[in-house]
Amino acid sequence: MTQDEVRRHLEFYRDLGIKSVYRRGARSSAPGLAPEPKTLSLPPELSVVPPLEPAHDNLLKIVQDIGDCKRCRLHEGRNRLVFGSGSEHAKLVFVGEGPGADEDEQGLPFVGRAGQLLTQMIEGTARKEGISLSREDVYICNVVKCRPPENRTPQPDEMETCGQFLYRQLLAIRPKAICALGSTAAKALLATKDGVMRLRGKWHPWRDIPVMVTYHPSYLLRPYNQNAKKEAWEDLKKVLHFVYD
Ligand code: URA
């Protein structure tokens, strides 16, 4: 494995929140030992991990790999796994937190009240800005694919387990931009503790793809968040012009 491949592997695990990896047999270069070769060989426990971006990855392969997932506790309460919906060739991907009750029932992301608002925001803003775009043209998915009990926030280990599939979805689609809806999506993509208020309205990188963070539509449904609504519309305008102009 080349140094660049090792670096990309380690970056992937850092993005998943894994802060350290254990390297069995690591040794410092003691006097008299041959210099470290330029090409590193991975320690055995890392060399068996599956490739991060399997060759010719696509959404169908990712769905097949997820299968009837029981990798974390969230499967226990789900009715349906919610993988994502929209175009595999989308130039724009929206990432939410996790399915709610309606999504769990239908197996589709953002189909409840928050989803209706998201659809209105996408299609209404595009129309006002003279951009021809419908919900089917973008791709919509979540950080976790199964509904957390009582709609609680996904826990770090659940995000870590499901994160590999979110990353594969994003890498398979390779959109021009990603819009992270709310703090869970922002944390999953940007490995930051900063909140949405601080992150929103600016571009941040995930790999080489620009990410715009904005408020989660559920937050915008609360009656006292009218100012946030205006800000979210501004964020979305920025995203749409960046992607479709
Ligand atoms: N909230 C989310 O974050 N995702 C959905 O799919 C629905 C509501």
Walk me through what this model shows:
With 245 residues, the protein is of the alpha/beta class. Helices cover 41% and strands 11% of the residues. The chain is built from 10 helices and 6 strands; from the N terminus they run αααββααβαβααββαα. It has helices at 3-15, 44-47, 59-66, 101-106, 113-128, 156-173, 183-190, 196-199, 217-220, 226-244; strands spanning 85-86, 92-96, 139-142, 177-181, 203-206, 209-214. It has a 6-stranded mixed β-sheet with strand order 1-3-2-4-6-5, with helices on both faces. Strand 5 (203-206) and strand 6 form a beta hairpin. Helix 5 (113-128) packs across helix 10 (226-244). The longest helix is centred in the C-terminal third of the chain and has 19 residues, at 226-244. The protein starts with a helix and ends with a helix. Bound molecules: uracil (URA). Uracil binds at residues 96-100, 103, 109-110, 112, 114-115, 142, 218.
Instruction: Note poorly predicted spans.
Output: 25-32, 34-40
- N-to-C terminal Cα separation, in Å? 40 Å
Average residue-wise pLDDT: 89
Q: How helical, in percent, are the residues?
A: 40-55%
Largest sheet: 6 strands, mixed
Strand order of the largest sheet: 1-3-2-4-6-5
Strand content of the residues, in percent? Answer: 5-15%
Number of discrete helical segments: 10
- Looking at how many chains there are and whether they match, the oligomeric state comes to single chain
Over all CA atoms, what is the radius of gyration?
A: 20 Å
